[in-house]
Amino acid sequence: MREIDPLEEDAWGTVFRDVVTLALLGFVAMVIMLLPHITQRKQETEEHKAPGNVIVEIHWPPTMPVDVDLWVQAPNEAPVGFWNQGGHTFNLLRDDLGFEGDATDENYEISYSRGIPPGEYIVNVHMYGRPPPNTGVPVKVVVSVKKQFEESRQILATDVVLTRQNQEETAFRFRLTSEGNLVPGSVSTLRRPLITRPN
Questions:
Q1: Which residues pair with 166 in a beta bridge?
Q2: Domain that residue 147 falls in
Q3: Global pTM?
């Protein structure tokens, strides 16, 4: 039986340690080289999907204890409102019930989008509760767009008066480009119900 020379055993141990160390260094070097690319792609995705690209809000008088609902629809998506508060593009950030459970003196609802998909957007207001008799509820509707590295800017505003329970009115239908520009001639108030059937 051949005896193992201690020097030969030590040489094999050194070779094994050197190979493992070189493999580990190679792996660390690859991770360091890929890290900037992974971080950059993540930042680009977050910027593209940052909330608040299209902002839709409604306001009605704080003295009126009524529940008005905001409904928005992004291109080729389901409407977003009080019973469907989140979609692929829009999220309803505040569902105001009027005076009920309200921590503020303001009556307003607001929806934010993530990204600006090109196409037609629809903004509706809905009288959920019963308004005071012989009184209309004035609702201010505002649409703003925030492009990358810019402040948000208002592109549309109107007033809608709601007079009866379950009344749903289209405040705006409009088209946006992928850069967030309003398509000329695309704004209308042609009625398009999002939650109620046409009369």
A1: none
A2: 51-176
A3: 0.72
